[in-house]
């Protein structure tokens, strides 16, 4: 069925053309990996998957459920014909007004004449559903009377849904033909009919040469995270405006743990007013933060993106922002050893700002982040900053039967009496990642509490081992401890990784044995951070 789903939309479509003062030009076309053509040489799954019953914010069905394809796995000839079978053309009537975000696909597996299994989102099942995000329409709004048309094929072992378009009822016959092959346009008859059909076809053809930039779904969600970019812009402006020549002439601590490097930096603390401020973004994946930094005055921003298509896209965005040529530099072109990205911008220069990737999209702390922060402190000019400056980790006690059942095999009843739990549960992972706390089926048994502090500018404030008392505010069984982070760019600007706009997911420690608690009780949690790994245990 066709659905409206804001969560799918923000992970597969860039929803804004202006981000923190940076304009995204029309000749840069962003796509998620779920968009692919059968003609491409790459073997990429043309869909993503979601547990639609738990997707944050839910979804709205825009069409009735419809059958896309029927395959008899006992018919060998039918299976062979799938590879050469022409795409089926479908036209599905819209029943509700909304925004067309995706086609959601599930299966009914007919075991025999009496027994079947369904992977439908309305069923309690272990399966997720296949999601085909809709991209490249000029207008995604639909209403009753419209039809969603598409071509369905299975020519390369993947179920593909292509040529998705939206037709209104008045022009259904004309435009449905123009959605197929070019030669079908000739069958429309006179020129007036052809022009009418093309005018009503709601698929986009861009003017001029386009640069296609394929981003991971988390990277697209990051671009759509407006508070993230606005927060960085404000924090960078504060740091850069504070680095005036008068202030830079004062000898300041550069937060370096190595005395030799500290004294070397102090000898270079006088910066001529004609020199730019150097900003390095070493966050992973596609990032426009260097371009945002470039809009803040005399700044020399460096990006650490690796892919050529990402660099071309950033160059085009820089041109649209009217940057002088070569204002934006790609740092990996200047570094001989890519494993040693953290270096001085020049032999006699230091960085004003270094942006680190601290939290993984999965909800875990990045590996070796404390080591990277230590090196970064030695590369900052006096008054320079690492972003984020520090991170607070928060967590709470919850009761979640879903997390219990999805983390370990429970007993023998569901395995037809076979006692496989002792063997399978040896491979149990103690921390679940890529969770959405907002839609996680659970009961909150406590309020959020601070678990850990990671300070990248002032390391002596770190709390790598601590005990935290948690007050129980609701009776129940503690089965898990979800956690998330508040990232502080400075003491006032904070990014919450659990917010609705966040591109980060959350993680949770699942207890091996649930703990019964009553209102008013306190549980003591032992929290440890060692080599970028966090462990949370309950002290009995």
From TrEMBL:
Could you say which residues form the signal peptide? none
Record-level GO cellular component terms: nucleus
GO molecular-function terms, A-Z: histone methyltransferase activity; protein-arginine N-methyltransferase activity
Q: Which residues form the Protein arginine N-methyltransferase domain?
A: 444-534
> What would be one Pfam family of this protein?
PRMT_C
Entry-linked InterPro entries: Arg_MeTrfase, PRMT_dom, SAM-dependent_MTases_sf
Query: Which sequence ranges form a coiled-coil region, renumbered to this chain?
Result: none
GO BP annotations of the record are: methylation
Q: Which UniProt keywords apply?
A: Methyltransferase, S-adenosyl-L-methionine, Transferase
Q: What is this protein called?
A: Protein arginine N-methyltransferase 9 isoform X2
